[in-house]
Amino acid sequence: LKTEPSHSSIIQISERVSAGGSELLLIGGPCSVESRAQMDAVASRLSVAGVQALRGGVYKPRTSPYDFQGMGREGLEILAAVRDRTGMPVVTEVMAVSQIEEIAAYADVLQIGSRNMQNFDLLKALGHVDKPILLKRGLAATIEEFVMAAEYILAHGNPNVMLCERGIRSFDTYTRNVLDLGAVVALKQITHLPVIVDPSHAAGKRELVPNLTLAAIAAGADGLIIECHPDPEKSVSDARQALSLDDMVAIVEKVRAIAPIV
Ligand code: PEP
Ligand code: MN
């Protein structure tokens, strides 16, 4: 298998930012891009704090078809403008093969959401893309299925895949999902790919995010992707798990005490 751990991959995201090396990769930003002002506020604060990359969805896989579906192209233009202003690479989700070309023209990292982890047509097409992929674990995917999904992208020609543990479904609804830290440990042992943890979608509740972040680092994560918003209660999606920018910066300071950032 191409994912076998004969070495540790370092994935270059921009000239200055990488995943899988000795420094932790921190990605922060809102669930959805909502406006230029929102993204400017997030980027200005996070870049100074030491967060290396920005996240923001513009095509959103919403459970209800009546909920906000994302800004689309206008959102991509905002992400690219904020990247050009701050130098921070941007991560955004691709939901379909038909979106790849458009999104790859704007974004630095293509995120594949949980709901698409086994969209094999999409995975094959990502093999032909010249951008790193952040592959999120399916809602109920086994570790083996997760690794094989990554294998699809590698087998079709793109070696730059980061695995993202974002919690799995269980009987307990107190947390939105269950953060599988055992999977983080295992993935580091059975693959050479960087492992990024998303404590936000795992927890579903902002007050659980700081300590899950620290736990992920202890488990061997190469990076974190965390949702935050200038006005978290007003987030158009995933408001309950969004951190304020103050709380996000506080997490970065806690992380810095235990792991090298940039
Ligand atoms: C997201 O990152 O906002 C998202 C929808 O994540 P997931 O695919 O893990 O649910
Ligand atoms: Mn979200």
TrEMBL record:
One GO MF term: 3-deoxy-7-phosphoheptulonate synthase activity
Alphabetically ordered keywords of this record: Transferase
Enzyme's top EC category: transferase
Domain DAHP synthetase I/KDSA as annotated: residue spans: 11-253
NCBIfam families the UniProt entry points to: DAHP_synth_Bsub, PRK08673.1, PRK12595.1
Gene: aroF
UniProt keyword annotation of ATP-binding present: no
Domain of life of the native organism: Bacteria
Protein name: 3-deoxy-7-phosphoheptulonate synthase
Keyword Cytoplasm: no
